[in-house]
Amino acid sequence: MSRLLPFALLAGLVVLPLGLSASPYLLNALITTGILTIGAMSLNLLLGFTGQLSLGHIAFFGIGAYVSALTSLGFDVEVGFGTRVVHEPWPPVVGFLLAILAAGACGWLIGRLSFRVRGAYFVIVTISFAEVVRLVALNWVELTQGPLALTGIPAISLGLPGLGTWTLRTKLQNYYLVLAVGTFCYLVVARLVASRFGRTMRGLKENESLALSVGINATRTLTIATVISAAMAGAAGSLYAHYLRIIDPDVFLFSTTVSMVIMVVAGGKGTLMGPVIGGLIFGLLPVGLRPVMAPEAQWIVYGIVLIVILYVMPRGIVPGLAKLFTRVRPARPVPVLDASPMVPR
Q1: How many angstroms separate the CA atoms of 67 and 90, rounded?
Q2: In angstroms, rounded to a whole number, what is the distance separating the alpha carbons of residues 345 and 340?
Q3: Rounded CA separation 79/134 (Å)
Q4: Environment class of residue 126 by beta-carbon count within 10 Å: exposed (0-12), middle (13-18) or buried (19+)?
Q5: I need a surface site. Which of 34, 147, 149, 282 has the fewest CB within 10 A?
Q6: pTM value?
């Protein structure tokens, strides 16, 4: 049953917009929830499978958003000593790819800086990095427009052979784009976790001393995991920028990282479906509460739901349901073998 759950959920998400065509509000909520879920999946690769908590994960998300937006818009900026860099606008798809590469490169830098030591250094480095990037986006007005925001970001266009260019402007088109990217990221994580590299990550998480004793290079393994995680977050940031078509330094808000952590922990860290289930619940819960209660009460209910989930299922929703299903499922009968001695004729 657990193997069928991802396929059933994917099928449900594919047909879900057919009943929401008259509700742009709900469709918009699903798109933003899907983008945050991709970010949660990327965070789960670190937190769930290597045990490394990144509290500055929003930095990779924001870098992806800004790189993709600036690549698509173009810029003319002075970099010092009278030198100006002029960039003409490129297709948004190129910006999407560059966002992945730029975020992955930043992930490599953070990994190389922080994984040579242990303890809370990775958490401190990621938080500091996120704040530095936010300040750059806020103060480098000539490049990022600062608090005035980058506006007019073009929608992503896909070139179809023989059919011309297809620009994804509608909410329905963006929904399926986010679903496709999210499905691809899920498959990447699933394949990675099932590989030898995935076993290495889990070995470092469970017993780092034992893993080091058998020759595992901890710094290299954790850095590669950070690169992949950051690249996925950059892809989510690019989708965010091209969907909203406007971004400002608020994209680096710490509360977004907290939301991703909640999605991972509540859904079940170290599981493939955990961030997806947690993302859908805590991404859509505020949407359901908004029409019936004040913002202050919404946050109270949000916190109560999280506390109840972790109290009933301390390891998260997916591990909790899996344990419950194992208890309910009847045990398979064990075949009884004839243990009587063989008597020779």
Answers
A1: 12
A2: 15
A3: 19
A4: buried
A5: 147
A6: 0.90
